[in-house]
Amino acid sequence: MGYASLVVTVAIIAGIYSLLAIGMNMHWGDTGLLNFAHAAFFAIGAYTSAILTTTGGEGLLASRVVGFEFPVVVGLVGGSVLAALAGVVIAVTSVRLEGDYLAMVTLSSAEMIRLGIKNEAWLTSGAQGIKNIPRPMADAFPLQLGSVTVGYDLFYLGFLLVIVAASYLAFTRLSESPFGRVLHAIREDEDVPRALGKHTDVFKLKSFGLGAGVAGLAGALWAHFFFAINPSMFLPGLTFTIWAAVIIGGAGNYLGAIAGTLFVVLTRQVTRFIPGDIPMSSELPFIRLIVIGIALIAILYYRPAGLLGDEERLVAGQMEAE
Amino acid sequence: MPARKRDGDTGNGINRRQYLYGAGAAALTGLAGCSGDGSGGGSTATEASDDGGTATDSGSNSESGGPIPIGNLSPFSGGLGWIGPNSRRGVDTALNAPEGVNQAKVLGRTVEIHEQDTETKPQSAISGFKTLDSQGVFSMVGPSSSVMPSLVGPAQDTGLAIVSPMTGTIQLDEVGGEYIWRTVPSDGVGARAQARYAYNEMGHRKMALAFKNDKGSQSFSAASGDYFKNLGGEVLTEVPLDPAASSYRSEVKKLQDSGAEVVSMTAATEVSGLFIKNYVEAGAEDDFDLLLGNDVLTEGFIEEMGADVMEGMVGQAPAPGPAHDVFLEKHKELHGKAPGAFAASAYDSMVLQALAYQKEGEVTRDAIPNHLYDLGNGPGKKVSTFAAGKKAIENGEEINYVGAGNPQNFDKTGDPLGPFAALQATDGKWKEVKVYSAEDLSK
Question: Where are the domains of chain A?
Answer without folding.
Answer: 3-233
